[in-house]
User: Fold Quaternary ammonium compound-resistance protein SugE from Geodermatophilus telluris.
Amino acid sequence: MSWIVLVFSGVLEAVWATALGRTEGFSRVAPTVVFLVAIVASMLGLAYAMRSLPVGTAYAVWVGIGAALTAGYAMWSGDEPVSAVRIFLLLGIIGCVIGLKLTH
Assistant:
């Protein structure tokens, strides 16, 4: 169960990071609310997962999922450039997350 919660929390990290970029300094209400809800839920999930997973593993997986999804979404939406190298490197992060799960 901890791994499922951790993966979901990583997804929420991507949500709050993307929402934070759209708050315009917390001057836009809707993205600010999304940011606040997602960051609280993401942190609660990470804290729950850390009760039974090693801190380093849980944090690395959480950050890896969040970073890969945030960057992937930014490329998909056109906010960041797309290149084969960037995609390859993001797949490397995902591979490392899978590797951490397999070695746990």
About this structure: The CA atoms of residues 71 and 77 lie 10 Å apart.
